[in-house]
Amino acid sequence: MRIAFFVSIIFQILIIYFWQEAKFLTLVNVIILIVVIIRYAKADYYNKYQSDVKTGLLQTAYFENSVLTEKDMGHLPELVREYLRFTGSVGKFKVNNFKIEFTGKIRKNEQSDWMPFTSRQYNFMQTPTRLFFMQAVMKNLPVAGYHCFKNGSASMDIRLLSLFKVQYQDGPEMDLSETVTFFNDMCCLAPATLIDKRIKWLTVEGSKVKASFTNNHITVSAWLYFNEEGALINFISQDRYSADAGKQLPWATPLKDYQQINGYKLMQNAETIYSYPDKDLCYGTFRLISVKYNCQDTD
């Protein structure tokens, strides 16, 4: 808000000055000043994300500093144990935080244009935290988005030029939805975290398992689907809100193209899909670029 107010004042001053002292103020001067303001706003906006990451890195370890063993997985359904073996999580250190980088594209609905994006995020397990920063292009203009989830409280702040808010959302519905997203990250991107006691394994039916995750008095659930190899191929929850629909809809993240990355076998491509009564809407595609576990700094 303070940046937007500052920019508004600057533009008002420029307009007055331009009309009164036009001979001293060239178009080039105006453009240079605008560029400086935008760069400052971009740095200020991104610094908020970086500051939250640094705070997250101060969290104490949730899981003990030891490797994941078969004994640690004893309470898990066999399908989940097979998944952890398939991904190469067994015999490696337990995961207390992780950093993810994606490329992809997103859209609001079928009428919207796809927006290419790159993103980076950090997740922390002790106090469940998900910090997702995205840079995208909308109608040839840069757009940045920061999704911040801290211990059950979530917000989404989307800005044009990292300056002008085009969408902001928080509140109970956002808190519930981002709890689902945090649980999804655990399942899809950090399989070793599935030993978490905050997860309850509810039902096993054939090649799928239903589980719930509880944090800060918020409980969400999802079905996890596995193939014969042991790979997780889909995650479907009924608990996530669609802002476009204004209500909860089935939300799925089909996964495919498993690859070796940083010593683990993880999905390479995923989609995010809302199921409406009459159709399915894929509103996002994600390609995993990098993953790092147990980060010590903000490299």
UniProtKB/TrEMBL annotation:
InterPro entries referenced in this protein's UniProt entry, alphabetically: DUF6544 (IPR046674)
Record field: transmembrane: 24-41
Keyword terms of this UniProt record: Membrane, Transmembrane, Transmembrane helix
Domain of life: Bacteria
Protein name: Uncharacterized protein
Taxonomic lineage of the native organism: Bacteria, Pseudomonadati, Bacteroidota, Cytophagia, Cytophagales
